[in-house]
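re: that chain from earlier
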Amino acid sequence: MNKCLKIVGCFLLLDFFLLTSLWGQMNVAHQKGIVSGEVWKDTDGNVINAHGGGILFNNGKYYWFGEHRPSSGFTTQVGVTCYSSTDLRNWKYEGVALAVSDETGSDIEKGCIIERPKVIYNQKTGKYVMWFHLELKGRGYGPSRAGVAVSDTPAGPYRFIRSGRVNPGVYPLNMTREEQELTWNPKEYEWWTPEWRKAVDKGMFVKRDLEGGQMSRDMTLFVDDDGKAYHIYSSEENLTLHIAELSDDYLSHTGKYIRIFPGGHNEAPAIFKKDGTYWMIASGCTGWEPNEARLMTASSILGEWSQLPNPCVGKDAKITFGGQSTYILPLKDGGYMFMADAWRPKSLSDSRYIWLPVRFNEKGIPFIEWVDKW
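^ sequence. v structure.
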């Protein structure tokens, strides 16, 4: 009798564990909302590792690309990961879209730094094009390059093409002839003095980097209604944002670019367009610490840009709810989603994701407010 009870008890215990496991899998596979700042897992139950990323919507499916970050350290050991979803809540791991190389001396050699990967689709060529911020192995943040890769399918694998600085030998469209003819010695200026700030405004660092090309760090991509694509990146020692037009195949730059807010110290740009108006959200430069977001707007992407107050409202608005902008995704219902990273530099793989709806006030100006679940 006791033996029978023990057997029954074992079966009951086994059933309990099976049900618990099944319930856990159901919870993983059927997320009913977006809850920012929590640990997010894919449909296999593994923690999603796709930081500083962006999303491509293609043929009814969302593809999320991001940095695979290590549990310790800051260099790239794996590459760019890809996840897919039909509802923005339940994400399937598609694998490594762009892997680092084991080849010594490769631009994307294991141990380099790959950040802010973004993917866009080229209607003319039928190719998927990835751009990213790249730092060569062992060189810190000195190289400040833009890298490009291409694939025949959205999830990849992507084939690395090249990296380099942007638009060598070319002046910005909005840099005057007088400014182009000025000569500078940056070593003569003490940073953050009025004289230094004036020199930055007039293009001192553009002139310094003219021959080799402009620095490109935190970046995003944008495809306009006419199919033209733009590379937006933090340049000039992270002091000034540049907006550069890409070639028709999206694999290089045309030489047309502008500087916006010289000396503004903006990074982490995220851009969208609504009713003919361009909006951009960026952050200040405070390392891994969150800061107050900046809102910018223009009626022409290569035209004049103006700056507006912080688009975040409510509690923790002055630190962007603990995050830093990375992308703004247009939604199928006509809305927009703000994507940010809540960085944890002690273990970057544990950094969290903040995704919030973009709303608009009575004047049509976008704002972002914290939502616990949506």
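Residues 1-29 have pLDDT under 50 and may be disordered.
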